Amino acid sequence: MADQIEIIENQWIPLSDGRRLAARLWMPKGDGPFPSILEYLPYRKRDGTAPRDETTHPVFARAGYVCVRVDISGTGDSDGVFDDEYSEQELSDGEDVLAWIADQGWSDGNVGIIGISWGGFNGLQLASRQPEALKAVISVASTVDRYADDIHFMGGCLLSDNINWSSQMFAYQTRPLDPLLRPDWREEWIERLDKSPFLAADWLAHPTRDAFWKHGSVCEDWSAIKIPVLGMTGWADAYVNAPTALVANLNSASKAMIGPWEHRYAHISKLAPADFHSEVIGWFDRWLKGELNGAEDLPDYRAFMQEHFPPTEHNSPRQGRWIAEQNWPSPNISVRNMYLDTGALVEEPQAGQVTVSTLAHIGQASGYFCPGMRNDNELAGDQQEDDALSVCFDTAPLQDPLELLGRAVFEFSFTVDRPVAQLVVRLCDVAPDGQSFRISYRPLNLSAHESFETPEALVPGKTYTAQIELNECAHHLRVGQRLRLALSSSYWPLVWPAPKQAAITLDLAKTTLKLPVRQVATEITPANPGPVQEFPQLETQELRAPTSTSERFIREDGVVVRETRDDFGKTRDPHHGLAVGSDVSLQVSIHPDDPATACFWEKWNFTFERGDWQVEIDTENAMTCDAANFYLHRKVCATEGANKTEILSRDWSKTIPRGLL
């Protein structure tokens, strides 16, 4: 099959200011011109995404597409200095890349963008800029609102992944250029080491939904996207809200699909691999080649309806079935109101009050924010321990099945004893044996209950009303199961806690849980992706096997600690001989009685070798806090050669006022 395509290992794409972007091309053999598929990322085509690229672009090239994998400016082997995610430089360069592709002799002028996470984000953002050549997008695990549904903030609360993702990007950005492609690699590498932006501090400096986050949030103007978009994600992923939002708000022929996957393309999922390639080829065949294959007639929303299975943090198969809604929003969804009583979810409003004031370490079973980015130990586990520390309300064992599809809404009236406080809402499916499976969750910074743009300090004792729209879900509760609403005032380590423990008192008579209940007389054919098909893989030489460990313990001073280590192994690429190894160690800790003791620490190590050329980079990031400030620290040490001659060692520290976080 390899003789059906030609691979150009490195193609320089010139930009108007003299910079060049590095690209890898997979080209069909035969008479062109051909449509093209662009994937535009900062993760290094040469080694970072090479194993994944091998599983996708050769397949698409054999289907008649020129695939163009481009490193963003300042990343991989591309020229320039990286400034930030989804920056004006990135998007403007992306428009130039699209125009360059359309202008090539092998191009018929029709280009599609595909991407997961970063590439899913910038695909939507580039579509909103309406470049002439871009005709369709497949956006996987992305967001339409960078403040509400990204890796930085959720519900106005700071996510600990703001520092975690910054730590990972800092490690990524310190990697060297390849000397085989860049004779000037050393000079450029040192500049990148020295000028890498302090992303955690930059992002934390924007704690509200200001212009910084509105840039790149396509929900600011839905009408700007005029081309078809296929939005995809998985229920184990962090990014579950974009696909249905796209379908509900775009006027183009757009569709949504949410499967049982984690933060990976579906065909390489460790949970439930599926035929991703056919979905991609079918979508682009319709909108880039003009084939009348019925893509526009697919149901608006195809989803994997999950059911309870033993919850575990380890990668494990999902249980459920595929469903479809021809139209979204769907007439098959109705709102069922449920109300809170002492420990119970009931059908009628009840008088009384309940106070939520939980320990700071609750959330130990919350899982990694974005499962699929480490080796294992990432998923939300059995919620029983967290439930026991929460304020919970259960239905009676169900006499009839209950099917939820959409976003539940928690409306409540409350008073609070602190100017800053959080309320975290979880929905769980509880089995007769007590196992608790998290269906959905969402936190809210109560000081932002009226506005994420202009939050205000809460007045202790004053009565407020608010609502929390939980994340999207598709879940079938079987007869005999119970639906549980669990409330807490913290959710560590997923959410960075408020500065002090708070007591939130709810007025039960004015508190309602609104459930999106699905009832369908006749199911339509879901057109699910089907089983995974055979695909090519990069046959690297394994020099060190990957491993994953996770441990939780309590120190003598009562601090709860979680330590994980993911060794991604070490492999040699057979095409260019580069051997790359990497590993990451993470520690998060907090004292149950003091949220201001929250602490994050992460260390990355990368090694690069080819013949006598050797480079090693160690990076560390840490974040602590008190009631007034956040304290961020990072450092890098880079060495060269077998004797590990130090090239650069540098530390940075920043203090960011907490404000109302």
Automatic annotation (TrEMBL):
A UniProt-annotated Pfam family: PepX_C
Keywords: Hydrolase
Domain Xaa-Pro dipeptidyl-peptidase C-terminal per the UniProt entry, residue ranges: 281-533
InterPro entries: AB_hydrolase_fold (IPR029058), CocE/Ser_esterase (IPR005674), Galactose-bd-like_sf (IPR008979), Xaa-Pro-like_dom (IPR000383), Xaa-Pro_dipept_C (IPR013736), Xaa-Pro_dipeptidyl-ppase/CocE (IPR050585)
Keyword Hydrolase: yes
MF-aspect GO terms: hydrolase activity
Record SMART domains: PepX_C
Protein known as: CocE/NonD family hydrolase
Organism listed in the record: Aliisedimentitalea scapharcae
